[in-house]
Amino acid sequence: MFRGKAVWAVAAVGMSLAALPARAQVSEYTSVAEADCRPPPPETIAVYQALDLGAEVCGSRSGIVLVMVSSDRSSWLDIIRGDRIWTTEDAVVYDRPVGNFPNVGAGKVEWRLAQGDHPAALIFRVAGEADGARRSLLLVVRLEEDAACLLGRVTTNEEARTLADGPQTCDEENQLPLRP
Hints:
Layout: H1 2-19, E1 26-31, H2 42-49, E2 54-61, E3 64-70, E4 75-81, E5 84-87, H3 89-94, E6 100-104, E7 108-114, E8 118-130, E9 133-144, E10 147-154, H4 157-165
Antiparallel strand pairs: 1-7, 2-3, 3-4, 4-5, 6-8, 7-8, 8-9, 9-10
């Protein structure tokens, strides 16, 4: 009788694991609050000063650096890996903005980590004003070795994690632009 229960328990655990998404991941958080950010190195700050933008380094994970970028009216995140800088500026400010004056709308971002603690996605909140009310959305960015792309805009943390953990990859349609 014990043997039958053991087989049943192993089968139940196996079925539970099989039900997890192929990219089942865990979360880690990084603060993007002003007090926790610092000026970028001179070669990086020069890129933003030439564009009349403010920039602060707000953390890094496995060689990926997050930069909070701001203009007079908006803020967004840039993602640096090696000598490449991907920007979420268009996604936050110009392509279907959440409202007027869109800004990174929370003090932290969520990294979705794949096996081996490798960042596979980034989730961050963007807020703006629309019709006299504050509105917000979560943006989900896929992080690949040689690309970063916008997977989508969603309203809940659960939707964001599902999208981040899903199979969608970067392609020409969803790639974030590179800063020159």
